[in-house]
Amino acid sequence: xxxxxxxxxxxxxxxxxxxxxxxxxxxxxxxxxxxxxxxxxxxxxxxxxxxxxxxxxxxxxxxxxxxxxxxxxxxxxxxxxxxxxxxxxxxxxxxxxxxxxxxxxxxxxxxxxxxxxxxxxxxxxxxxxxxxxxxxxxxxxxxxxxxxxxxxxxxxxxxxxxxxxxxxxxxxxxxxxxxxxxxxxxxxxxxxxxxxxxxxxxxxxxxxxxxxxxxxxxxxxxxxxxxxxxxxxxxxxxxxxxxxxxxxxxxxxxxxxxxxxxxxxxxxxxxxxxx
Length: 275
Prior knowledge:
The chain is an all-alpha fold. The protein has 14 helices and no strands.
């Protein structure tokens, strides 16, 4: 009686699927079964149709890495219309310079925005491929510089005005200060230089004011000469007074400055004529 043999079970499908597959076939190429066993996104990649063996794959990878930097540089410096359009799309450059939305923020009173310069900057940003975020940051930086300069200018001019007033009050004691300033103001108006009184560099310049008072005012013999010239420019004294008072009401400078003091004296002279 022959010995009873134990039957050998065939491997299950699961066991067969987990059995290792050689990466390479006998001819040194990638085993197709190994490629198909890879995750779907890898196994179906087009790279396997280009490289069917490890040596070519390694060479291709090294070559691709060496080309990355050069190709990027070529793309960002290319003058090709398609490359230029793609670069602008990547950086978010608007289709035209008017599409740049730039906000200047709140400005201090007295400081006005030059819209023409803002429009010129929009066009420059568009031509130089400056992204909107960068353009906005540049504008904010420049606006803050302008605000700082404006604020510092006001402070410096006020210091200058106070120093000038102190010098003149030291020389022209008491009522002479207001009277002499009024004479200078009237003389400048008579000479057609009234607009320069609002210029801080002139209106607060003690040497200029004293020069006008000492060398020009005496050439005008009397107050009547100035007042006569004024009368030639107005229909009546009342018209002069109305216009002058309107100027005083609209005046936004310091009321101790030369222009305003001159208007006070002029108003007093007109009121004396009416009375």
